């Protein structure tokens, strides 16, 4: 008998084809977002769940999972939506999909940097609304990215690809990680032992860190004050790393010239202050949204499930 896998969202066709071939797959062709109650009911008798970050596995949800569920094979690199301590306690295997989305997310980060620095959102809105009247030397003047300093919080898989792409813009890379990287991973990037030490070196500040209790609200008013005047902030990690009130105040005062954001607290019902500002470039959490990457994420999640059901250790076990 094939293992039963509950798939919470609509996945790419090729991934669903493999799911149907190898598993007794409970698919969601309409891509309807389950409530926790609905998900728990749909998981009845399932051996595993293949969710996205849109489903939250709190300690309470995990405690109520049917006894048949052995694994949560996430279709995401981030797993802050899963209480891993509760999962471990319950003996659940939890996996994620690292590496395969680094290129796509780094591409999107460069887009956020350019969109914020060169006022991409504002320009697009003007043209679409037929409000573009004229060309003038003082019209839509932004910040040049070339040759500037990029500070990265979280120089991991995605951060390192972003750094590599940014070097194509002759940018100097600075970073903060909990621990300094070996020289080959740094590739010349300058290490700062604390976020406070990094801030003054960031013409553009990019977040690529994992959302944890330690990184929650990392960008607060005190750290913003340490940025150079007119710095740009971009975030393609998780909204939780930013104190929205503090960033919005800085965008209003001009301390932060612009922000490019793909992730937010309380998505999709984001802080309305961001929408009201002209100097924000806002994307709807699409860092990994390329055909190539979404296929690769699905296959990676399935590789993890295959290993689990073959009695092997899945490569991407996070709990
Ligand atoms: C990830 O993989 O973590 C992306 O943010 C989508 O969930």
Bound compounds, each kind once, are: (2R)-2,3-dihydroxypropanoic acid
- What is the tally of beta strands? 12
CATH topology of the largest domain: Rossmann fold
CATH top level of the largest domain?
Alpha Beta
Strand fraction:
5-15%
* Rough outline: globular
Strand order of the largest sheet: 8-7-6-9-10-11-12
Q: How far apart are the termini? A: 26 Å
User: How many DSSP H or I helices?
Assistant: 13
Order of helices and strands: EHEHEHEHEHHEHEHEHEHEHEHEH
Structural class: alpha/beta
How many domains?
2
Radius of gyration: 21 Å
> Which CATH architecture of the largest domain is right?
3-Layer(aba) Sandwich
Corresponding CATH superfamily of the largest domain: NAD(P)-binding Rossmann-like Domain
Q: Biggest sheet: strands, sense, closure?
A: 7 strands, parallel
Low-confidence stretches: none
The residue fraction in helices comes out at: 25-40%
The whole-number mean of residue pLDDT values reads 98
Describe this structure in words.
The protein is α/β, with parallel strands linked by helices. The protein is 35% helix and 14% strand. It contains 13 helices and 12 strands. The chain has a 7-stranded parallel sheet with strand order 8-7-6-9-10-11-12. Helix 11 (244-253) links the parallel strand 10 (231-235) and strand 11 (256-261). The longest helix is centred in the C-terminal third of the chain and has 19 residues, at 291-309. The mean pLDDT is 98. (2R)-2,3-dihydroxypropanoic acid binds at residues 52-53, 76-78, 101, 287-288.
């Amino acid at each position: 008998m094939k293992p039963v896998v509950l798939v919470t969202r609509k996945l790419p066709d090729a991934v669903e084809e493999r799911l149907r071939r190898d598993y007794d797959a409970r698919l969601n062709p309409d891509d309807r977002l389950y409530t926790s109650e609905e998900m728990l009911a749909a998981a009845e008798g399932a051996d595993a769940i293949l969710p996205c970050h849109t489903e939250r596995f709190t300690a309470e949800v995990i405690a109520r999972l049917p006894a048949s569920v052995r694994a949560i094979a996430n279709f995401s690199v981030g797993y802050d939506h899963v209480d891993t301590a509760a999962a471990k306690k319950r003996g659940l295997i939890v996996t994620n999909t690292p590496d395969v989305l680094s290129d796509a997310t780094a591409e999107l980060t460069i887009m956020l940097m350019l969109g914020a620095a060169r006022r991409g959102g504002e320009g697009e809105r003007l043209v679409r609304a037929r409000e573009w009247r004229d060309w003038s030397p003082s019209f839509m003047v932004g910040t040049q990215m070339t040759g500037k300093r990029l500070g990265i919080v979280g120089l991991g898989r995605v951060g390192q690809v972003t750094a590599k792409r940014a070097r194509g813009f002759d940018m100097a890379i600075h970073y903060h990680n909990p621990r300094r990287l070996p020289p080959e991973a740094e590739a010349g990037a300058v290490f700062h032992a604390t976020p406070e030490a990094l801030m003054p070196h960031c013409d553009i500040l990019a977040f690529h860190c994992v959302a944890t209790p330690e990184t929650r609200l990392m960008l607060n008013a005190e750290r913003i004050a340490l940025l150079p005047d007119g710095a740009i902030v971009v975030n393609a990690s998780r909204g939780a790393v930013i104190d929205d009130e503090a960033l919005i105040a800085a965008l209003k005062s001009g301390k932060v010239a612009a922000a490019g954001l793909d992730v937010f607290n309380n998505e999709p019902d984001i802080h309305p202050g961001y929408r009201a500002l002209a100097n924000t470039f806002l994307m709807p959490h699409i860092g990994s949204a390329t055909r190539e990457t979404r296929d690769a994420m699905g296959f990676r999640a399935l590789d993890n499930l295959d290993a689990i059901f073959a009695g092997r250790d899945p490569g991407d076990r996070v709990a």
